[in-house]
Amino acid sequence: ELDGHSDGTPCEIKEATTSSYLLSVDDIGFFISVSYEPVRNDWARGPMVVSEVVGPIVAGHPNCQSLEFLGSMIEGQRLSFVASYTGGIKGNCSLEWFRVKRNGVKEKVLSNDEFLDLSLEDVGESIELIYTPVREDGIEGSPRSIRSDNIAPANPMGLELLVPDCCEKQEVVPRKTYFGGHEGLGEYIWYRTKDKLHGSALTEISYAGEEVIACCRTLNYTPSLDDVGAYLVLYWIPTRVDGRSGKPVVSITNSPVAPADPEVFNVGVKKLFSDAYSGEGEYFGGHEGASLFSWYRDIDGTIDLIAGANSKTYEVTESDYNCSILFGYTPVRSDSAVGEQKMSEPTDIILPEVPKVDMLAFTGKAVQGDVLTAVQVIPKTEIQQLVWSKYKGAIEYQWFHSLESGDKISYEALSSETSCSYKVRFEDIGRCLKCECIVHDVFGRSSEPAYAETGPISPGFPRIEKLEIEGGGFHTNLYAVRGNYFGGKEGKSKIQWLRSMVGSPDLISIPGETGRMYEANVDDVGYRLVVVYTPIREDGVEGHPVSASTEPIAVEPDLYKEVKQKLETGLVKFEVLCDKDPYPKKIVGEGNLERRMLEMNRKRIKVVKPGTKTSFATTEVRGSYVPPFHVETFRNDQRRLRIVVDSENEVDMVVHSRHLRDVIALVIRGFAQRFNSTSLNSLLKIET
């Protein structure tokens, strides 16, 4: 076949020696002709014949006859293609790469290159290429596409692992690069080693001995105090999501773990005892060295350093009372690096211990009338001794008595009893007493209540207090004994009335007079009335007798004048009735009494029976005042009296009134006073 040049010169088409010829792009614009040389089977050749020229040849429609991928369908590989183009001179053919999801959705890949580098995004997906043939003159042919199988992931591997320099308590985030499909849960092991490892010692660290310590199994790691000064090694086994593992990758820090700057947190003060405190704080920043401690005193907002207080503990002094204290902590690292001082919050106001009472005790006996005094037993500790001597304030007391409430004893406050002492009263007998004591200090605080209790109160020993005799002082008055009984409930106490002669210690008992009242009579004139009171408790216990006396009993004033007048005359006569019965009856009948005249002077006395028309007056009794002469009166009959001259001569007589009887008795005794120890004249103020 011949191809003609543009200048008409024919040009042979090489290798075109068959009966048919497929036009190519090289033929476009040329004329084509074919030459034929016949050859016989014995190789004899005939004359060559040349056909007419055909042409010129024009370009065909652009077409992609075949399209195939080149390369491995594996992540990280480069995927290219080979396309067979026909249709004139090839122009800028169009290429479109697509990632086809499992659900059929296509995602265009931003690439116009004739190759595609497969990435992680392509793993598990398929790649589609749409190829559109374009002729040189811009005519496009029909697009042709091809789709790959699913892209397989590459084998897992760690491309890069870098552990930066580390510092205590700062999280380390290694820089790593993974390749090989989607990354799964890789294995990470952090090791601590004192020496920096190289070569096989580093790559085979998992087989190292005790000098290498595994300390963490996460990707990120925060170095601790134990890591300071050591090298950190990260051992990484890259692992694909399907669990397939790659070759381990190991990286070590360039320098040892650096300590953090010295710092202290949570600085505070802890109370150990009432007078001792401890400073606290959490040190951070490498190994702690000789950190500095200090204590401060806060006085109304002014903070002063306490000299000499440079340890973690502090013992309170009196200077700290009513102030707050603070603890200062200056962190110092073992290499002498110094951090910033941190101060605690001020404590509560420092005060000494609240006063305490070890025991409350009573002085005195739980007996009526005794005084119970509450006494505090103070702890013997030095601080309590100081508190009681310098800071004790008021002490409150409250007394209680028990109530009857079955087996359980309950108490009722005695609101008015708030002193340390309590005098046991009659009402307390049989009850228990309790005292509550609360001690206050000068700072306004109070101790826990302390209590002391008695057993049931016993009655006191019976006695009479303030015994006295009340009465007008005259012989006609009624006298009463007054006194306060003490000693439980009074029983049958004894009372005895007596007479006491002025100037004599002798006491004359008045028979039958044992009551609280006594009616005086003329026999008491010139004597002191004495009462002896013997207290007896209801259970029979007898107390000591107590006595009281009056001033000498005086004559009733009106009667006194009459007696004095008659004594001054020296001769006195009285008309009386004499009882002829030697045993007088209580009721005097007219048949037993006879009228008589009682005549007396300073020397003698006589009883005269008056004369009648038929007889002369007769003296029945006569005598002097020499003892045993005396006059007797009768308490059961205030008008009767008896004159006793001697053992053989005595006269019972009755007058019409007590007044007259008393006048007669006093006048007789007045005349007879020179023979008596009682000076009636002195009583009556008569000069002898």
Automatic annotation (TrEMBL):
Domain AIR9 PH-like span(s) in chain numbering: 579-675
Domain of life according to the entry: Eukaryota
Residue stretches making up the AIR9-like A9 domain: 6-49, 63-147, 162-252, 277-342, 464-549
InterPro entries in UniProt: AIR9-like_A9, PH_AIR9
CC annotations in GO: plasma membrane; plasmodesma
Protein name: 187-kDa microtubule-associated protein AIR9
